[in-house]
Amino acid sequence: TQLLEQSPQFLSIQEGENLTVYCNSSSVFSSLQWYRQEPGEGPVLLVTVVTGGEVKKLKRLTFQFGDARKDSSLHITAAQPGDTGLYLCAGALFVIQGAQKLVFGQGTRLTINP
Amino acid sequence: KAGVTQTPRYLIKTRGQQVTLSCSPISGHRSVSWYQQTPGQGLQFLFEYFSETQRNKGNFPGRFSGRQFSNSRSEMNVSTLELGDSALYLCASSSWTGVNYGYTFGSGTRLTVV
Asked: Using the beta-carbon criterion (under 8 Å), do A101 and B102 form an inter-chain contact?
């Protein structure tokens, strides 16, 4: 069962365009993290959002956590070829004894064409 | 500071064999999690270790096991390898930031079962 639905799975746009990636779930997460992964490497953390309604900006990237902490979005303004990569959202779920695990979305493979 | 180190980077094994992967976390991080990444299933949680104890386990068969040593280094073992075990195995070390866990992933071990 995929707890976190990420869309779109593939996105190819021209340099300079804007785009939004969505992550949706029926589960409530303690936090939501966004990662970027390059081929042959592990995911690299971009941002963590913790509070419902929270908005964080990282240069041209804007991340938002839904009010109910069940969904999140990543918006890129004026995309550049260097933004090309696999973007992953991950919801953090607390389990017993304070342990936590990350539930990942399927990822969005983003290609920015010059 | 040094990141998360996973060895080996690449591995080719034959069906039925077993394999051991290693992960050295960031110094001071006591939690190590393992994830399997495949094109079809994305990133899936295997298990998490904290202070040499498994705190959390995903939905994988008993052929997948792990352990953590007193220096926080972790190993995962897969016995009786199947073709479907071919994947990128990622290790993440984490520490509590006071608000949430901060995760750092290694570059992964690419396992190919033939």
From this structure: no
